[in-house]
Amino acid sequence: MHDPIGFYRAFQELLRKRSIRAVLTSGMACVEYGLQQNTKDTDWILDPGGIAGIVELFGDLERGVSGANWRVSYRGLFAAPLEREYLEGGWTSHISARESPESAERHLDFFGRAPRLGAAWRLTAEGGIASRDIVARMKKTDRPKDWPLVNGLAVQSFFDGEPEAVLHLREPSILPEAWERTPADLWDAFTRERPLLAALPECNEATLERLLLVEQMLWQCVNRERYLVYQRAWKEFYRSWQQDRIGEWPTAEPFLQQHRRVCEAVRAHGLPPAPLATEAARREIYDRGRDRAASLVAAAPSELALVAVPLDTILP
Amino acid sequence: MTGPHEHAEHSPAGDAPIGGEPGGRRSERVYPDRYYDILARDLGEERARWARLPYEERMRELAWYHAHFNTPDDLSPWPAELDGGVDRP
After folding, report:
1. What phi, psi does A258 have (nearest 5°)?
2. Per-residue pLDDT band at A127 (split at 50, 70, 90)
3. Distance CA A121, CA B18 (A)
4. Which has fewest Cβ within 10 Å: A115, A156, A167, B44?
5. pLDDT of B76
6. Which residues contact residue A54 at a Cβ distance below 8 angstroms, ignoring those fewer than 6 apart?
7. Maximal C-alpha separation, chain A
8. H or E element: which one contains A170?
9. Virtual CA dihedral for A12, A13, A17, A22, nearest 10 degrees?
10. Which residues contact A314 (CB under 8 A, 6 or more apart)?
């Protein structure tokens, strides 16, 4: 039986054997980067082409095709099926697994179009760990406890000489130095993605700390609005599905039967595959998040303008 | 101290590949004290102490904790990247 780290490595090996392209991200990636100690679940960004392969893999693992019989199940809450259409629409699939009756329950989460990464990112390696840049983007959630990890990843990047560090650094004593060292040919792209960088030459330490606070609040509030859109859509779907008297979800059925059941249900009961597909929908929640951020930290319009991360960066 | 941005290759945001290290093992890297001071301030002295350990030792320590304790963790039905988590009311 594996510990959580051994489990993720063993699972990664299974993905490699099936040529399913995926990278480890989020908490377990932060464990590998020496920043986080206490996570057990594993999060994976999947190449969309590998989504059907994952379903097949879980089915085979349950049948013991290549070894011990696993028990695999969808998890109960807020779970879209492992289907390309849904993962590309920004949903995540949440799976629990046991490699044997005695093993601990493992949680595996799969992203196709991961929050704050979007579809422009693509997989080029089989397996491996998401870069610090990617993990930092994904850690810009609405939860304050994720933000020290964003900074920790960025400080590592800075000391490793990665220019992308300036996109995520939150360290007032390092950010100006990092920006000064950024090659000039990157200035335009970086200031477009993070407008705060353009304000750095005019900032004293107190001003910079204030702008970092406003910037973080903008990310948190827009992310909260994003999350609420998916949560509302899922709750509406689930209520409708419950009217079919399905009973408890997930059912005790084998994984492939669960998968068929949930795939039929999302179509029959109208879970939208991509709730934020249109720019207008993304703009609406961006504006709501920005207004909430302004209210929570009493940000002046001039301050918001200095940190206004563009829509396609925060909600790609 | 190795200066930032030396020997770095840049992939423009937006069309960059998702990278990673095949094999899943991080290389050894010792950072300047400034980095561990930031960790201690933001994440606590214990995390900073652990982060200073060589990679294999860090992982051995975690394995020991997992073997001996049922640690409270992020094993939550609401994953962080959908902005959930055990601390969400």
Report:
1. -55, -45
2. low
3. 6
4. B44
5. 40
6. A15, A20, A46, A82, A110
7. 63
8. none
9. 20
10. A116, A218, A219, A222, A223, A286
The average pLDDT across A171-196 equals 96
* Residues with Cβ within 8 Å of residue B66, at least 6 apart in sequence: A3, A4, A5, A40
- Contact yes or no for A141 and B81 at CB 8 A: yes
Q: Which residue has the tokens 């304000």?
A: A199
Q: Is the pLDDT of residue A259 over 90?
A: yes
Identify the pLDDT of residue A115: 87
Report phi then psi at A123, rounded to 5.
Answer: -90, 130
pLDDT at A122: 64
- Separation CA A42–CA A109 (nearest Å): 6
- Give A25's strand partners: A43
When mean pLDDT is compared across A5-19, A28-42, B28-42, the lowest value belongs to: A28-42
Q: Do A78 and B19 touch (CB under 8 A)?
A: no
Concatenate the DSSP letters of all residues of A113-156 into one string: S-TTT-TT-EE-SSS-B--HHHHHHHT-SS-GGGHHHHHHHHHH
Joined tokens for residue A3:
């510990």
Given a cut of 80, whether residue B69 has pLDDT beyond it is no
CA–CA distance, B59 with A311 (Å, rounded to integer): 39
Answer yes or no: is pLDDT of A94 > 60. Answer: yes
The pLDDT of residue A84 is 96
Containing A26, the helix (H) or strand (E) segment is: helix A26-32
- Which token pair is A131? 């870069």
The mean pLDDT of chain B is: 64
Residues of A with CB below 8 A from B22's CB? Answer: 125-128
Mean pLDDT of A251-280: 95
Q: Please list the residues that pair with A273 across neighbouring strands.
A: none
Specify whether the CB–CB gap between A106 and A42 falls below 8 A: yes
Residues of B in contact with A164 (CB under 8 A): 10, 13
ipTM of the complex: 0.89
- How many CB contacts within 8 angstroms connect chain A with chain B? 202
pLDDT score recorded for residue B26: 55
Question: Which residues of A fall within a CB distance of 8 Å from B28?
Answer: none
Mean pLDDT, range B59-69, rounded to an integer: 80
